[in-house]
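Write out the 3D structure for:
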Amino acid sequence: YTKNPHMPKVRRDAADMVLTDDNFSSIVKAVELGRTVYDNIKKFVTYLLTANVVEVGVILLAMIMNLPLPLLPIQILWVNLMTDSWPALALGVDKPASDIMSKKPRPKNESLLKDIKGHLVFIGIVGTISIITLFWIYDVIGHEETKARSVVLTTLILFELFRAYGSRSVNAFRKDFFSNKWLNIAVLVSFVLQLLILYTPLNIFFKVVPLDLKDWAYVVTFSFIGYILPELYKLFNKEDNVKIEASSA
């Protein structure tokens, strides 16, 4: 066969994969790159699913409890713009994990949602209950519907921005927590834009009002609860752990 000049081309056409560079170090680099891309896709999907599960849960639970809508349509669109765009894209360019080459090869038919289903349910429950509780405090007890929506909108955005960091790693307390500079920039931009719609005339268009220090205390507390509890869940539930490590500094 090797003497047949047409056989190399036949073999290339029939192969599932063709190596144009058989240098071993190049093969290792290619495997590392492939694993990194897969991990980043998983981070991206995990983040978007957890964020949107909470949004849907908040609206559904409010309807079941016969509460006013916690968010108006324009506010829902704003949440999606602030959280489902550049923070999600920044997760797609995360650096490879330090132990990425020590992991066992995954089956080629493995589901992208493997090991994260319980995690998604837990975050959905925690986020939904936290935000509905906050809405109840302001709208039902305090009778401040516009303020309630302003607080819920800000809390939900911060909650999802925290989730972007939580989607990077199984460990919430790594020293390289802020090592993804693009994610840091994306989170900062989203937060600044949220401040703009709260404290400028844009608040009329988005039907929100400025928040005072007491409001911010509620916002930070409830959004951080929605972050730290899922992280503790990941630490103590190894079977449902998201198999994603943050990149090394």
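Residues 18 and 100 are 24 Å apart (CA to CA).
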